[in-house]
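Q: Here's a chain of 379 amino acids. Please give me its 3D structure as tokens.
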Amino acid sequence: MKCMNRFISASFAIVFLMALAVIPIQAIASEKIMTEQSGRFKVLGPFTHRNLAIYLVKGKDVIRKTKFVTLEQALKDGKVTVGETGNVSSLVISSMYDEEYVFIQAGDIVKGGKQDRTLSTDLIVPPGGKKMPLQSFCVESGRWQARGAEKVDKFSMSSNQVASRDLRVASRYRKSQQEVWDNAADLQEKLSSNVGKSVRSPVSSSSLELTLGNKDVRKHAQDYVDALRGIIKDRKHIIGFVFAINGQLNTAEVYGSEDLFRQLWSKMLRTAAVEAFAELKKGKHFKTPSTKAAAAFLEYPRESKVQRDRINDWLTSITHEGKDKVIFESLFSEEHALVHVTTMRMDEKDRRKLRSRQPRQSLEQNELQNVPQERRRRR
């Protein structure tokens, strides 16, 4: 019996020592998270999973008085309606909120209508706003009627965003419907290749929204989300993030308030996860960019072309186009503060497109390009 007690005591001692041995390892791992300064922001990271690296942006709220609700939440609550107009490049939105402002982020997808759409600019809808215009691009081609039981004149909630840098460049900067279609199809092909079978929906094979809802796509994206979503849990004053895929800095999203960031975190992380899975090169490894490089990515170009566009009475868009990145600022007039800033990498492929084509299409050109082929022939 004494021998048995000694054996049990020794076993507990071994387990206790093993547990102690784990602690320094965890501490060492946490020390790999670096902090760098970028203007008024601090950047923490990297937090990595497979080919995706996330860097958190820490800063102070500049939006202090206004309560924002995301488009996804507003549609879920039945407090806004998004409808067709007969103009394929423009939708309308109305709000039934008494106090809250609705924040729409460029790249948000709305589902249904005559074709699924992505919204091409940030937008703010004030309380009680009625039939305000929304600029849009189709992320589905060939359909121009109701799909199943969906309403043909209105749109329902989507929890998705356009999930590739090329799509974001095509819709927000290049403003080309054809490039949106081409890049949506390219994303579908990449996802199908990495899943190992087609992820296009038999209901509408061109619908990016239905592809993003594919169970295999969601399963693989969820693997990234589960690994990374908790990185903000015990951290305060996080107002945005930068992400890199395959060793290249991709996009940064920074918000004017921590509350707005936290409302959008799950959606934006899932968007980055889908893109990372689509770009996954099996068997290949890439060097993760440093936190210092991620912080520098947030800095404004020393030389840039600046364009200012008034979107509506509540929001002005300011674009800074540099050699290797483009920055979109959304200025909220009520508090005269930036509610959202997006930074996107621009590479040589983007520059070649800019040199070979007209810089930006007019809305009239986009509208004609957006019309299904059979309707164009009747014009």
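Q: Can you summarize the key feature?
A: The first helix runs from residue 2 to 31.
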